[in-house]
Design a protein that fits this description.
The complex is a heterodimer of chains A (267) and B (258).
Chain A: E1 4-15, E2 18-29, E3 33-37, H1 44-51, E4 59-64, E5 67-68, H2 73-79, E6 80-83, H3 95-105, H4 110-123, H5 139-151, E7 157-161, H6 169-186, E8 189-193, H7 197-203, E9 206-211, E10 214-219, H8 221-227, H9 235-243, H10 246-249, H11 253-266
Chain B: H1 2-25, H2 28-48, H3 61-79, H4 82-91, H5 93-98, H6 104-132, H7 141-168, H8 172-188, H9 201-209, H10 211-225, H11 231-252
Helix pairs in contact in B: 1-6, 2-3, 2-6, 3-6, 3-7, 3-10, 4-7, 6-7, 6-11, 7-10, 7-11, 10-11
The chains are: A alpha/beta (267), B mainly alpha (258).
Chain lengths: 267, 258
């Protein structure tokens, strides 16, 4: 079996004259945890949205578990799970009903649905809340539920967009314990974006830093520190070295607002 | 192709059943929505029935407008259904669903069916109200089946229309504004509370292209007049426009939010 599960080849995305992602190429190995870092507007979310087939690419291509993004988006949807940054569960349904909804939408065989949901609820310590309305849960529990939903169809890759934003440190640790356990149990590749450098350093095998639509660097934390030309560099030093402060210098509030509105409209 | 069709049916059912489960968790919406038809029939209908200025084909005015009020209740529920899509988009649930192997048409048809269930509940309220107000309606298995088909089609059309608006506007406020702007003109430019024959010629043209008129016409034939010669025509027109708008709605379905 090919050890590379994600292969991105000269991928670009532009919204009118705004170049959100510019000719990026990188690879992700099976069962790897890759952290995607970058300042706001660097192109992380746009890249993830292209890789999960939500956003049409402008040029280039990527292969996800052997399927081309351009030619076989439907096949890709079956092998990936996705947890967006925003809350993506229905607060008016129970935990069990939210799980069942995703199981059915992901074509989990009917006879296996209940078993897999139960298994995932136990795995995530949510079994006591199965019949609770989601709007009554804490932020950490909601995140775990979303991860559980995304894992019901046993995807080979789990994409997480800032998975621990808005959750407290204890919940954050708990979520990562479960994500690591998922990787160990199912061999899932985890691709996550974050602003939290500590999280990236503690949880990932490799880190990619994006800046102004390009991959500035990719490698293990040790490699990044080494490349930042500072013997005692921390990941933060490496981040500043590779991401720089160009994003703060580019465009004013109106430009950014217009660019993002355009992204949304064209998306 | 066969696989796509089976996926379409299965996922439509999933999306529709979620809508019904939500309604069962919180049925207060049904109660609040029942107030408007009660006011229309109980106050407007009762008052206007004393005027006797509107030709009603030999039936009482309350009999005449009951199908119109039923249609209005069903379509008003449907026309605001797109709000749910905007909320799903704002929450992030929409992105999550769009990443699953689910045909977009199934998302649209699921919501259309779900809105129809709410529409049927409105019809039940109006039937109960007609008993209280002693409005004589033709309640038979045949007429109920026909009314059910017309509710599903009419509800489907206006839900599809609503989802198109939801895919164009970006905020709930704008959606509500547009929804409130079009509901009453749609209602008044139809045969719901007066016959098309008494309208000025320009309004007749509008009424004749308004799908709400076909829904009222069919339901009135089934529940009041018993003259069903145009019923199949009404059903065919509604089927075509509902199918067409579902395709357009699936094409325009809110795509992605960055």
């Amino acid at each position: 079996m090919d050890n590379i599960i994600i292969s991105v080849n000269k991928l670009s995305k532009s919204f009118g004259s705004f170049q959100a992602v510019n000719n990026i190429s990188f690879e992700v190995k099976r069962s790897e945890i890759l952290a995607f870092l970058g300042p706001n507007g660097a192109g992380k979310t746009t890249t993830i949205k292209m890789l999960i087939t939500l956003l049409a690419l402008t040029s280039g291509d990527a292969t996800i578990d052997g399927h081309s993004l351009i030619q076989h988006p439907a096949a890709i949807r079956k092998v990936i799970g996705y947890v967006p940054q925003m809350i993506s569960v229905d607060g008016t349904l129970t935990v069990q009903e939210n799980m069942m909804l995703m199981a059915k939408l992901y074509d989990v065989p009917y006879c296996e649905c209940q078993g897999r949901i139960q298994e995932m609820l136990i795995f995530l310590n949510l079994e006591k809340h199965a019949r609770s309305l989601v709007r009554t849960l804490s932020g950490g529990m909601i995140r775990k539920l979303e991860i559980g939903q995304a894992m019901l169809h046993r995807p080979r890759i789990l994409f997480l967009d800032e998975p621990t934003t808005g959750v407290d440190p204890i919940a954050k640790r708990n979520i990562w314990e479960h994500l690591v356990k998922l990787r160990e149990t199912f061999g899932t590749t985890i691709f996550f974006s974050t602003h939290n450098l500590e999280e990236a350093e503690d949880s990932s095998d490799r880190v990619a830093i994006m800046n102004t639509g390009e991959i500035a660097v990719i490698g293990s934390v040790a490699e990044l520190k080494e490349k930042s030309k500072n013997k005692n560099a921390t990941l933060e030093d490496a981040f500043i070295f590779f991401a720089g402060n160009s994003i703060e210098m580019e465009g004013n509030f109106r430009d950014i607002r217009t660019a993002r509105k355009t992204e949304r409209r064209l998306g | 192709m066969l696989r796509y069709v089976s996926q379409l049916i299965a996922k439509t059912w999933v999306m529709a059943s979620v809508g019904v489960i939500k309604l069962l968790h919180d049925p207060t919406e049904l109660i609040t929505r029942a107030i408007q038809p009660i006011l229309w029939l109980g106050i407007f209908g009762e008052a206007m029935s004393r005027v006797r200025a509107i030709p009603t084909q030999g039936f009482t005015y309350l009999q005449f407008i009951t199908p119109g009020i039923l249609t209005q209740s069903v379509t008003f529920v449907a026309i605001f259904y797109g709000l749910e899509v905007i909320m799903e988009r704002d929450m992030g649930l929409l992105q999550r669903i769009l990443v699953t192997p689910t045909p977009r048409l199934a998302l649209v048809w699921g919501k259309m069916l779900s809105a129809s269930v709410r529409g049927v509940s409105q019809a039940i309220v109006i039937f109960l109200l007609s008993l209280v107000l002693h409005i004589h309606l033709r309640i038979t298995t045949y007429s109920m089946l026909g009314v059910l088909i017309l509710i599903v089609l009419g509800s489907g059309f206006f839900t599809g229309f609503s989802m198109i608006i939801a895919s164009i506007v970006k905020t709930r406020e704008r959606f509500m504004g547009i929804g409130q702007t079009i509901t009453l003109p749609l209602f008044f430019a139809s045969n719901a509370i007066y016959p098309i024959a008494i309208m000025p010629s320009w309004l007749r043209v509008v009424a004749n292209i308004n799908p709400l008129s076909y829904m009222v016409d069919g339901i009135r034939a089934l529940l009041v007049t018993g003259n069903v010669t145009r019923l199949s025509y009404d059903i065919v027109v509604l089927t075509i426009v509902t199918f067409a708008i579902s395709l357009l709605s699936a094409y325009m379905y809110p795509k992605v939010v960055i």
